Amino acid sequence: MSAENLTHLLDTAIEARMLALRTVIPARVESYEPSTQQATVLPLLYQRASTGELLTPLPIGNIPVIHPRGGGFAIHLPLAAGDLGMLLCADRSLDAWLSGSGGLSDPASTRHHQMMDAVFLPGLYPPARPIAAASLTDLTIGNETGEAPQISLSPDGTITLLGGQLRLGSSAAAIPVASSAKTDANFAALSSLLATITEPAFITALATALASGWPQSTGTSKILGES
């Protein structure tokens, strides 16, 4: 065999081997189990057979989903069928590591760069499907369409809630928080009513209170809302 033919043969073998490796692949959620944070996902790139035929990929189950997590805090995304992201295929088998508690692990298996050792990272979308109303300066959490509900955090510390209800304490909170505008209106009405009383001693006490700034506003500059 000539050196040229040998080189071609080696190049072909290396190329075939490289094509068999899996690294990063766009994928779609088919189903998701929040209790285990695992999903069944469908790879969204065809494979090409040696004959040139395009092979349709099959769904892969029990894929760990990566949610932002650290420092004792976490953000969980309620994934639904149709959500997009990317599959990241590990260098080696993840079986032993996933069955442990997150420490050092011996992969044991010689398997490498396989789909069965992939994890799913949500959020990879084509540029034709951007998050609507994305801000250059504000952190936003909410509906990807830009509609309510939406929470925005601005660099100056302002937090804006678009739509929905703000419940303090728990999701079961049901006691309405007082509106400063309505509370001030009640104080103003009470002040006007008391001003009609003609008892001299009371009038003197009321005049003193009013002169001292009563009733004081219940408004706050830190929490703003609409009545």
In the CATH hierarchy, what is the architecture of the largest domain at level 2?
Answer: Beta Barrel
Q: What is the mean pLDDT?
A: 87
Helix content: 10-25%
Distance between the termini: 87 Å
Beta-strand share of residues: 15-25%
Order of strands across the widest beta sheet?
5-2-1-8-9
Rg, alpha carbons: 31 Å
**Number of helices, counting only DSSP H or I runs of 4 residues or more:** 4
Please tell me the total number of domains.
Answer: 3
Shape: rod-shaped
At the first level of CATH, what is the class of the largest domain?
Answer: Mainly Beta
Order of helices and strands: HEEEEEEEEHEEEEHH
Number of beta strands: 12
CATH topology of the largest domain: OB fold (Dihydrolipoamide Acetyltransferase, E2P)
